[in-house]
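Quick one: structure for this chain?
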Amino acid sequence: MAQQPTNTLPSGSSNYLKNIAIVGASGTSGKFIVKSLLATGKHNVTALTRDSSTASMPPGITVQKVNYSNPDTLVSALQNQDALIITMGVRAPPDQQTKLIHAAAEAGVKWILPNEFGYDTANEPLCEDIMPGAQKKGYYELIEKLGVSKWVGFVCGFWYEFSLGGSPDRFGFDFRKREVVLFDDGMQPISVTTFPMVGKGVARLLSLPVKSEGEGACLEDFANRHCYVASFVISQKDMLDSVLRVTKTGIEDWRVTKEKTKERYEKGMARMRSGDYSALVLGMYSRNFFPDGSGNHSVTRGSDNEKLGLKKEDLDESTEIAVQQALQGVSDSYH
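Got it. Here's what it folds into:
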């Protein structure tokens, strides 16, 4: 039995999405997406959760319990939904997304945002070098083969606060020890996005008119392709400068070392091949700092920020959040 909110919106124009389902509503990025969707006042939001889940949900959303071993529960939960957003951790079973895609097609869901929200999965060489990335293309192909839904791959680069304030395997920073490892010379820029910007970007995307109304972007502009957003185009040196400003420290207060990016990547992938799947983080992050620009989609693909009406953010404010989360251990793991 679904838990119903008290403020559901009536069905609106067929040129706008009203009913949005999301998997991972209480997760690392999902909670920011839900918050932004609700803030628009334009959507009914439904969270799909496992039967056993005890996660608390914000007021104003519907909760549908599902069992991935029983596809009928997925189809039932997705009835009358205009779009499905899938956000899952890297350790989620690969067939879980496949089951959701099949269920969405059976339920007639017209739009799917697959489990992306990271590096550029349209970059085939990059995906081939990162094990989970190689699977992404198969999900797009499945959606298109089923012929019911259209997909949008939401590319935002690495999450800035999470990556800066987490393990040194990500952006190389250890705030408790005041140490940083620079990859090569630390000058390679990449595109990154804050959690609030991820949420706003998804909400703005799904609030666009489906078909063009004469001016501005529409959702069909992004049909079966990627949407690219970013908060900052930034190098490790830029991050370090911001950290020094925020922490009111000098470079002499930090231990700064260097490591070759390619060697760092190869070390992570070798550990992965030997069965140490925790090394995925080391390999995945290092690969995005290669000098081929793979991690900088704002340059290689362009930015959709303006189309979505996303405003510029303050770097130091975001760095301050990352530092506090690092010291509190908030960003230590995905969930």
